[in-house]
Amino acid sequence: MDKENNIKEIVASFAPQDYVEVLPASSREAAKTALENEVDLFLFAQDLAIQPGQGLVTKGGSLWAIDMFPRITNELFLLLCTNDATYDAWREKLSSEGAKTARAVVLVSSTAIAATIGVVPALILPFVAIIFAAIAKMTIQAWCKSQFERKALEDQQRKAIEENK
Amino acid sequence: MIMAISLPLVISNQLAGTCFIAGGDDKNIALITSLHQIGSGNDINIAVPAHFGDVSRPQPYPLIQAPTFKLNLGLAEPFLDLAILLLPRFPDLIVPVFPNFIQFADEIKIGEEVLVAGYPFAPMGSILETVQICHVSALGMRQMGVASRRELILSAQTYIGSSGSPVMRRSDGKVCGIVRGCLAPPSGASVGNMPLGSDSNITYATSAHVVPNLIIEALNNG
C-alpha cells in the first residue's frame, strides 16, 4: 500500500467523535452539539478560525490571522490527499504514531502544518481537530475529491482571469 | 487582598494587551489572556512592570524598557476566545498568589460591583496598569450557531490593550471574567493595528467559571 493510502486508512479509522474529544472542554461541547445537530463542521471551524469567540469589536483582533482556516485546509490537503514531498517525514511519523489514537493523528498533523505555516502547534490544534472530525464524517476519500475539484476550479478561474487581462 | 496579578503581554516584541497569573503546578505558572491577540503564538512574552503587578504601589512612567519572560502557548480555546500561556518555573522565581475563580456563571448577579485591572493603550507603549470600578450591566449568553457561551457585560470603558484583563468581584476578589472586547460600531479608520473611534463602555468578558478546568488541561498538556 502506498503512503498516501496508508494515511487515509489511519484517518478513517477514527470516528468524528474521537477527533472532537481532542478539543478543550468548551470547544468540545460546542462541537458535540454541532455534530448532534448535523451542523457543517467545516463552517463551524471556519467561523471560529476567522475570529475566536466570534462577534463584536475585539481590541487587538488585527493580530489574529483571519486566513487561518484556508491555510490549514490547504496544508491538510497536501498532507492527506497528495504525495507532496513537504510532508514525507510527517507521513512516516503519522504511520508509526498516528495509528494509535485520534489525539496522536491531530497532534502530529498540527505539528506538521504549524511548521509549514509558521505558527505554534497549540494554536491550530483545535481547528485541525474539528476539520478532522468533519473529514471523518464525510469520509476522507470524499473530502480529498472535493479539494481536488476545488483546486481545479480555482486554476480554471485563474486562467480565465489571466486570459481576459 | 490580592485579587489577581495583571501583566503586560508582549507579542513579537510589541506590547499587545493584558494577561494575568491564573494558576500553576511544580513545573509551570499558568497565565490567561484572550486568544485573538496571540498572533502566530511564536513569540509571546510578559513584561515585568516596575510595580511587579501590585497596583496599589506608585508606578513610574513612561517606562522605556522592562524585563521580559518568554511564555509558551499551552492551550488555545477558540470557542471562548481564551489562551492559556505557560511560564516554565525557574529556581529564583517567587511563586505568586493564585487568584480564586467563581465556580458557576450564575454566581454573578446584575449590578454587582467589579474591578477590571489591565494595561489600556499597551499597544501604544504604555505600561501603566489601571483599575476600573464598574458594574455588571447584563448577563450574556452569546449564541454561536447551535451552541452558546456565558458572558458578562460590564459598564467599563475598553481600550486597545484591555483584552485579557481580569474582571474581579469587588466583594470577595474572585475572578469572574476575562475581557475580550466591546460593543461598538465598526472602526472607520485605524492607525496601524489600532482602531479609531471604536471604544464604548459596553464591555464583554468571557465568564471565568471555566478557567480552572482549562488551566488543569493546559498544565497536563505541559
Give the tags.
heterodimer, A: mainly alpha, B: 222 residues, mainly beta, 6-stranded antiparallel beta barrel, 1 helix, 44% strand
Structure in a nutshell:
The complex is a heterodimer of chains A (165) and B (222). Chain A has 165 residues and is mostly helical. Chain A is 73% helix and 0% strand.
What does this entry look like structurally?
The complex is a heterodimer of chains A (165) and B (222). Chain A has helices at residues 3-12, 16-20, 25-36, 41-50, 68-81, 88-98, 102-117, 121-138, 140-164. Chain A is mainly α. In chain A, helix 5 packs across helix 7 and helix 8 packs across helix 9. Chain A is globular. The mean pLDDT of chain A is 89. With 222 residues, chain B is mostly beta strands. Helices cover 5% and strands 44% of the residues of chain B. Chain B has 1 helix and 14 strands; from the N terminus they run E-E-E-E-E-E-E-E-E-E-E-E-E-E-H. A 6-stranded antiparallel beta barrel of chain B has the order 1-2-3-6-5-4. In chain B, a hairpin with a 3-residue loop joins strand 2 and strand 3. Chain B is globular and about 45 Å long. Chains A and B meet through helix 3, helix 4 and helix 8 of A and strand 5, strand 11 and helix 1 of B.
